[in-house]
Design goal:
Blueprint (H helix, E strand, L loop, with lengths): L13 E7 L5 H15 L6 H18 L6 E8 L2 E8 L25 H8 L2 E7 L2 E9 L9
Antiparallel strand pairs: 1-2, 2-3, 3-5, 4-5
Helix pairs in contact: 1-2, 2-3
Length: about 150
């Protein structure tokens, strides 16, 4: 695993929770929610990376789970950064989220790099069972404010 224990959950200073359709239309909505949450509070986490990794989690939930049940996006702002979770109805853990794949992704294929990106760009990531399936999550640290010239 990348970072702290799977079930360790720091307390959030603010959080958003939204049900998303079980379709590709959920991806831009999820990206917009993450962007808005981080921008409105002038949170120090890297917004571009948060959007990219959120899009990967949501796209995986839509692609790898069946049925029409909505998926859920949870964005939590933490004192040390942010945590994003995607809840889906499938209890099966994501394949290679917390350990490297046995083979490298094919550079000519469109798919196969999402979990690699999440592992590489997050400060920690993991999954946990929920009452209705699983939650897959990542954390990003706060970026210190840069000194501005006077």
């Amino acid at each position: 695993m990348n970072g702290p224990a799977l079930h360790e959950r720091p307390s959030a200073s603010a959080s958003w929770r939204i049900a998303l359709p079980h379709s590709a239309a959920a991806v831009p909505v999820a990206r917009a929610l993450v962007r808005t949450a981080l921008a409105e509070l002038e949170h120090g986490a890297d917004c571009d990376t948060a959007e990219l990794l959120t899009a990967e989690l949501v796209a995986n939930a839509v692609e790898h789970t069946t049925g029409d049940a909505p998926i859920e996006l949870v964005v939590e702002l933490l004192p040390t950064g942010c945590q994003v979770e995607v809840h889906d109805p499938d209890p099966v853990p994501p394949g290679n989220l917390t350990r490297p794949a046995e083979t490298e992704p094919d550079p000519w294929q469109e798919h196969g790099r999402g979990l690699l990106l999440i592992r590489a760009l997050s400060s920690s990531c993991g999954h946990r069972p929920t009452e209705s399936g699983k939650a897959v999550w990542f954390r990003l640290p706060s970026i210190p404010h840069q000194r501005r010239p006077v």
